[in-house]
Amino acid sequence: MTVSDERLVEALRASVTENERLRRENERINAATREPVAIVGMACRLPGGVSSPEQLWDLVDGGHDAVTSLPTDRGWDLDGLYHPEPGHPGTTYVKEAGVLHGAGAFDAGFFGLSEREALGTDPQQRILLELVWEALERAGIDPHTVRGSDTGVFAGLMYHDYASGVRKLPDGVEAFLGLGRSGSVLSGRVSYLYDLTGPSVTVDTACSSSLVTLHLAVKALRGGECSLALAGGLAVMATPDAYVGFAAQRALAPDGRIKAFSSSADGTNWAEGAGVLLLERLSDARRNNHPVLAVVRGSAVNQDGASNGLTAPNGPSQERVIRAALANAGLTPADVDMVEGHGTGTVLGDPIEAQALLATYGQNRPEGRPLWLGSLKSNIGHAQAAAGVAGVIKTVLALRNEQLPKTLHVQEPTPKVDWSAGAVELLTEARPWPREEGRPRRAGVSSFGISGTNAHVLLEEAAPEPADGPASPRAAGPVAWALSAKSADALRAQAARLDAFLDTAEAPADPYDLGHALALTRTAFDERAVLVGDDTATLRAKVRALAEGGTLSLPGAARGSRTKGRLAVLFTGQGAQRVGMGRELYKTYPVFAEAFDAVAAELDRHLPAPLKGVVFDGEGDLDRTEFTQPALFAIEVALYRLYESWGVRPHALAGHSIGELTAAHVAGVWSLADAARLVAARGRLMQGLPAGGAMIALQATEDEVLPLLTDGIGIAAVNGPRSVVVSGAAAETAAIGAHFAELGRRTKKLTVSHAFHSPLMDPILEEFRQVAAQLSYNEPRIPVISTLTAAPATPQELASCDYWVQHARGTVRFADAVRTLRAQGVATFLESGPAAVLSALGPGCLDAGDDGAVFLPALRVDAPDAPSALTALGGLHTRGVPIDWTALYTTARRVDLPTYAFQRRDYWLEANAVTTETISIPETGTATDPGADALEATRHALVARLAALSAPEQIAHLVDLVAAQAETARTEQNPDETFDDELDGDSPFFEVGFNSLSAVELRNRLVEATGLTLSPMLLFDYPTPAYVAEFLQEQLAAEEGA
After folding, report:
1. Which alpha helices (H) appear in 306-439, and where do they start and end?
2. 680-683 contacts: CB < 8 A, separation 24 or more?
3. Which residue among 6, 211, 568, 766 is the one 20 to 30 A from 178 at the CA level?
4. Is 456 a catalytic residue?
5. How many helical (H) and strand (E) elements, i.e. helices and strands, does the chain have?
């Protein structure tokens, strides 16, 4: 073969390879354009008090009529509006409709809107904000996790009349009405407040709007424009103009009831409503373990074009949109079982729609399989821009409940249709719709806009999810239920919703599954509670206590608020030991067992008996110091590793006596082998001292005790401002105790084998030094606060033999160490030890007015270990300490939960307006930021200033900076207002005069003052100067370290 032949063969081979690659890529692209799209979440507000899909199903399954009287809370002149006879200008002959009563109710604070801003915002925008939250929660998605994602928003709207009849606006509201009534802001506000960066589109095709949004969302998902999409529509009528206008045309049913496709049809009637669907590509939904409620197989949208009238329905166009949707789905008409029709009850429209269905779905159907036709409008009225999405939700529910609800108010099918022309039948009665082996059930949904835009969507039942395989083993023991809300009232309401939910059929039987959902599919807000129990009954009793506003002082419950401040772990000293400590944790949590076994294995090399038997079973004298100190070390290290596995990461460590050796080890100063060697030697040497000596706890200050000391007595510990332990020769120690007893002070002789931290320890110090000298030392990874010096221990001190010798002999300055930790910004103390010893001492070490710190014992003497440890973890969570809940919940099944308990107030301009400013957020973009070079120079200068300060001083400096800039921002944006509140670190921005404009101004000023790039959501995420300061400190450290 010649060189040219070889080149030709190689070229042909490359061409074949490339053609194959292109073929596969083309197949992939084609498959993507047809991939089914899953409906993974649904939320709705519909007439009849319907506020959830479950309530909608109760309505239609029970055959209920949701038409009621017209609203009384919108300022409508109902007496003047009604006239029984058609043809009277400015009136309607209809007294009832499908109304969303209380449509103005809204939780403004939850979304960061001031009351003025809420009042100036169309209720349709407000309702959509809440429904989006609910749709995400119903999909098992924590709404905060979608922030920054490419989620798309497609919202249908047709009314823009809010506040149009108001002659005089309340002060401060007019500035918000422009955006508050804007159609584009309906979708844009959702994208802004939820930080969604995918397509954001508001659609107005009148009555077909929400079904068109579903079509657009499906195309966007298939086209890769977004990974999640929200689609839906809303209709809330701020004025009665629609009733008046259609009454003038005599197009409304006199009794307000829609009689879809019926011989008695006599007109339509307007309703209100709102609905949102959360959509995801089916493959993504399965991979992400999101619930697949139903599947969108195909959809189509078209227009009537030049028909016989702008608003007249066009039968051929309806046929074409149905056929286009079938082609898009790759289905035939016989593959579809039912259609949720447009069915408005009009004498002209219904027959045209029925004929189009007969010409498409009614042909070539198998014997005995007619197309079943129904209409939700017979239950609720015509919900206009929300009609399509409401029909989709009803149809999804019918698929899931295997039942076709009946259409109300149908006596006989309309005679204006030749029903014999095809196999289409009305659902005059409810019918079972069971699953069939090998044949998915499918349904169509139609919506036709008054301006001629038609939409048709094809839904398919979700395939059964793969059966769960053998469950992965999970730890036995208690379960934690975590609840949270934005306010204390909302938290109680959330607990009440959970309590009610536990009575429903949807409630999971396994409390573990519910705990998983609560912890991992819900946003953790500032007001928090964690309830711990072994079974649902126990947990539910605590849920009810929370709902009723109880103190939750009962065991196994933690209640608190997220707070600024750091976490420190305290390790307990000698005296807290007890036989059986940690045994339950050993059996319950593998992490604890593995850590304990590893420590015990190293300690056993130096002990006369296996430590595990001594600790768990009392096979030896645990109170002998040679066992006591190693046992405490083993338990405390294992406890620390357990909390570490749960995601707990302290900012600092401290330990009482032997506890400081545990702190040094977990900080990384010694390897486990070296730490075990030193701990065992310490206990062995102290045990080997002659018996004798005494220790007495005194109610006295250190200054009061010092003059009474002799050469044979020392201060063993300062555990509080008036809590001192003296140790040494028995007689001399007893004399000091007697002295303070005579003064009426409390004294207690401690049960100990030796006088620790006293001159009686001197004989062992040299040998202890020799052991310490043989170890390898490392710099600590976590700061350790020395209880010898009450200051942060330096790497040099922790690597010094002399330090550990002095530590064994000197005073344990626990109270001073706690105050040092507090000064460094520690607000939460976790005690890692077998009893609540340090947690009892800690509060007394702080200033009398300092109520910002909390001490949480991991274990208690009077409670089982596993619930105690989990309750302490819950306490950390309530304080805002990050927890890795996935470590506790690894194998749980997906379950439903109640959605957030919004705390609503009524905002409607025609009603009594409330305009007191409370909470707001930035509503627009920001001014032009300084140039990159200037920002960098500013940032470096600020970092240099902070470098010379301690951590608490840095926070204080940043709080002052933020407060100063905040004062300027709120004053500049509100020049006519006088503020009585002086800003400090804890001032909630939106309760001290801030609104959207001043929030933007503050963000801009902080960009200039810090050189950082800051989000317009800054004040929404960090609502006080102190929170902002902590965030700035973290950002500055991260950027300088990058």
Report:
1. 315-329, 349-360, 377-380, 387-401
2. 680/603, 680/605, 680/606, 680/607, 680/626, 680/629, 680/630, 681/606, 681/767, 681/768, 681/771, 682/629, 682/658, 682/768, 682/808, 683/625, 683/626, 683/627, 683/628, 683/629, 683/630, 683/658
3. 211
4. no
5. 36, 28
Q: Please give the Cα distance from 729 to 725 (Å, whole number).
A: 13
Residue 682 has pLDDT above 70, yes or no: yes
Lookup result for tokens 């395989």: 469
Q: What is the mean pLDDT of residues 401-418?
A: 96
Listed residue (625, 569, 577, 634) closest to 600, CA to CA: 634
User: Residue 77 has which token pair?
Assistant: 């002149």
Tell me what pLDDT residue 1041 has.
Answer: 65
Q: Are 87 and 247 in contact (CB under 8 A)?
A: no
What gap in Å lies between CA 697 and CA 727, rounded to an integer?
Answer: 9
Task: Say which residue the tokens 């159609």 belong to.
Answer: 183
How far, in Å, are 662, 839, 927 from residue 1009 at the CA level?
A: 43, 41, 14
- Report H helices in 521-624: 536-547, 583-588, 590-604, 611-617
The catalytic residue among 44, 226, 290, 342 is: 342
Active site residue 44: no
Burial of 552 (0-12, 13-18, 19+ CB in 10 A): middle
Catalytic residue among 44, 207, 226, 845: 207
Q: Which of 220, 329, 199 is nearest to 281 (CA)?
A: 220
Q: In sequence order, which residues have a C-beta less than 8 Å from that of residue 470 and are 6 or more positions away?
A: none
CA–CA separation, 143 and 379 (whole Å): 32
Q: DSSP characters for 410-452?
A: -SSB-TTS-GGGSSEEE-SS-EE---BTTB--EEEEEEE-TTS
Mean pLDDT of the chain: 91
Backbone angles phi, psi at 343, to 5 degrees: 45, 65
Residues near 959 by Cβ (< 8 Å), separated by ≥ 6? Answer: 984, 985, 1025, 1026, 1029
- Check residue 893 and give its pLDDT: 86
- With CA atoms as reference, report the closest residue to 399 among 451, 343, 464, 353: 464
Cα 308 versus chain centre, distance: 53
Catalytic site residue 801?
Answer: no
CB 693 within 8 A of CB 758: yes
| Residue 697 DSSP class | E
Q: Give burial (CB, 10 Å; 0-12/13-18/19+) of 449.
A: buried
Query: What is the average per-residue pLDDT within 173-197?
Result: 93
For the record, the structure tokens of 123 come out as 């209720």
Element (H, E) at 749: strand 747-749
Q: Which amino acid is at 223?
A: G
What is the amino acid identity at position 165?
G
- Residues 718/816, Cβ–Cβ less than 8 Å: yes
Rounded CA-CA distance 381/33 in Å is: 35
Contact 443, 339 (CB under 8 A): yes
What is the helix, strand, coil percentage profile of the chain, to 5? 45, 15, 40
Q: Which residues of 281-319 are buried (b: 16+ CB within 10 A; e: fewer)?
A: bbebbbeeebbbbbbbbbbbbbbbeeeeeeeebbbebbb
What is the amino acid identity at position 230? L
Q: Which two tokens stand for residue 1007?
A: 């960009």
Is the whole model's pTM more than 0.90, yes or no? no
Q: Which two tokens stand for residue 273?
A: 């409503």
Tokens of 303: 């227009």
**pLDDT over 70 percentage in the chain:** 94
> What is the rounded CA–CA span in Å between residue 112 and residue 130?
12
Q: Which residues contact 790 (CB under 8 A, 6 or more apart)?
A: 813, 816, 817, 819, 820
Question: Residue 925's pLDDT is what?
Answer: 37
Residues 231, 359: Cα–Cα separation, whole Å: 30
Catalytic site residue from 215, 290, 382, 807:
382
